[in-house]
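assembly run, all chains below
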Amino acid sequence: MCLAIPGEVLRIREHDGLLHADVRFAGVQRRICIECTPDVHPGDYVLAHAGFALQRVDEREANLMLAALRELEAGSEAP
Amino acid sequence: MKHLSEFRDRALARELVAAIRRAATRQWTLMDVCGGQTHGIVRNGLDIVLASQVRFIHGPGCPVCVTPASAIDHAIEIARSPGVILCSFGDMLRVPGTSKSLLQAKSEGAEIRVLYSPLDALKIARNNPTRDVVFFAVGFETTTPVYATAVLHAARQGLGNFFLLNSHTLVPPALKAILAVPGCEVQAVLAAGHVCTVTGWRDYQPIAARYRVPVVITGFELADLLAGILGAVEQLENGRAEVGNHYARAVRSEGNPVACENVRQVFETCDREWRGIGIIPASGLRLRPEFVQFDAALRWPAGRRPACADRRECIAGLVLQGRAKPVSCHSFGRTCTPERPLGAPMISAEGACAAYYAYARRY
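ok done. output:
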């Protein structure tokens, strides 16, 4: 039940008196409440759970982890 | 999709498996706390691939599984009350209470609606001013900010017909209860990524120190899980017991401060019963006095009923505490299947028994 999936913020708008964003996930677009991540901008990725953004995805940290993992891959291929 | 596909890369996964095999000099016992992790591990066969390095035992992190039968009975009682619309996440509908499930109550005429988000219940309440709208609020720290935001918004709007039936649970007290059992075999913990996305990981530092177990936060994709397992194995091999964050793109040390503040404003801790485990002190949340007008349990107090233990042929309580594997249950796959489940971990899509049944038919 703690499933949360990343999606790209397309635009910010108010809905029903709460801050929302249109967010594009793999294949679908949904309206997500961003009351607890009020500093997100279009182009950012958020982690959404039950129609609610829990956190902005930190691109820098994502890239750092991928770089570290790829280093592992490159290291093991070295002679 | 960005932030998903890169972390599902099979070549990266193979390298991580090789790195774990190089790092481990013996077999270590890891507890994956969250049902999402259990499914990722069993679906990808990591328990088989890493059998010599890691023994996985599965923790209590499935909210649907740990919601007690008495809470479901109470939800059914409320749903049958005149004028009530009971709203719930879909996962809860098939879980049996003492005598029936919400789905059976719905088929008997109770108005029960399945919602994607608790925020949708606010709209239903506004559109049905003569009805009382109750959301059956289960979930861990991942979900509590959504409930807190709904309550704050209902208070601002003066919405008098919106209620929560609170049955949410907190991970750290349950983890402590499991680790404190004498003879506990858990040597490291894979902490639930999305719980920590909200709360951060500071609460886990004293747990790692006190019980001398590495607590490693992981995400849910293949590379996330493997990177966390590698981190745990490296700590164990080096005799360390710290909090390791292997899901930094989603988890900061302080979590999401706005979400935490909303939760703190609306809720306070209370003792909570966990299905199959019993009452764990300070492991639940209830509404603070200034928000009790939204408390469904006060508006419709639970009727008195005899306590009812789970069926004896079901070992769900042991499975939820990591003290037994689903496959060591005599009923597993015989008298207990997803079509005819005996206990909540077989019913819930995230339950450990359902994971073994779906992905591990080889047992």
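Chain B has a mean pLDDT of 93.

The two ends of chain B are 34 Å apart (CA to CA).

not gonna interpret more than that til we talk
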